Amino acid sequence: MGNTSSMLTQYDIEEVQEHCSNTFSQQEIVSLYQRFCQLDRNGCGFISAEEFMTVPEFAVNPLSQRLFRMLDGLNFKEFVAFLSAFSSRASLQQKVEFIFKVYDTDGNGKVTFNEMLDILRDLTGQFISEQQREFFPMFLRKRAIQRTLC
């Protein structure tokens, strides 16, 4: 499976399917492999951030750079596991674990307030002012207090 010019074996397909918790069917994995090979322009069995950003749906995603910083690049198995988090068939647990990794940028197992602000900045870009962003901490504290009291 390391060289993208080779075909997937049945064993490879089953291994990838198991790795992504059976989110994709075997036929879907074959289709994903074909797409992976198209993206892997130099045929090294690895997709770089630059290659991955040629996918229009990810290139326009405000979190795309953050997503790819998590990975640095992808082999085929990682590619399928990465995409499985976006599938409607992924479990809630898979989605929560994935988004937690996106938010926990330093990998310490905690999402800090500053990491939340960074996400807000990534998502809103120039659409809200710094003054509006500064209001966000007060809003969160107020909501946390309301939920604690209820």
From TrEMBL:
Q: Which GO terms describe its molecular function?
A: calcium ion binding
Specify the superkingdom.
Eukaryota
Stored Pfam families: EF-hand_7
* Keyword Manganese set for record: no
SUPFAM superfamilies in UniProt: EF-hand
Leader sequence segment: none
List keywords of the entry alphabetically: Calcium
The chain positions of domain EF-hand read 27-62, 91-126
Among InterPro entries, the record links this protein to: EF-hand-dom_pair (IPR011992), EF_Hand_1_Ca_BS (IPR018247), EF_hand_dom (IPR002048)
Q: Does Calcium show up as a keyword for this record?
A: yes
This one is known as Calcineurin subunit B isoform X2
This protein's species is: Sesamum indicum (Oriental sesame)
- Organism phylogeny: Eukaryota, Viridiplantae, Streptophyta, Embryophyta, Tracheophyta
- Gene name of this polypeptide: LOC105155476
